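Notes from the 1:1 (GR / supervisor)

We went over the backlog. Supervisor wanted to see one worked example end to end before approving the batch request, so GR pasted a single chain during the call. The sequence is below; no edits were made to it. Supervisor asked that the structure be written out right there so they could see what the output format looks like.
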Amino acid sequence: MHQLHEHLAFVAGMQNTPPQGEDLARALHIAGERVAKAEAAARNQLALAEAEQQRAMNAEAREHQEELLLSDAQTRELMAEQREIQFDKKTGQEIKNLRSMLEQAKVLVQTSKA
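Structure output shown during the call:
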């Protein structure tokens, strides 16, 4: 409506009299076309803004998913390191026990030879 008033004021200013008859009809038609174009442009801008907002939300969701995957990978790595440490401790204890048994066996062999 604002554009219609602007256009009518422009046409009136050019003729120095308000449009009448065919000029008024033509001015209203032109103004209607301009309003329709402005509305279409506004709808397009809104659609573009909504699409951009959706892309931003999708990117944020992907980023969140990547953060979760990274956290999960770090947790798995930590768990694997803990299992490795436990395995090393257990293996070390078993080696220590075997050495002790070997020493005991050597003592028994020495004792039985004497």
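Supervisor's comment: The helical segments are 2-15, 21-113.
Batch request approved.
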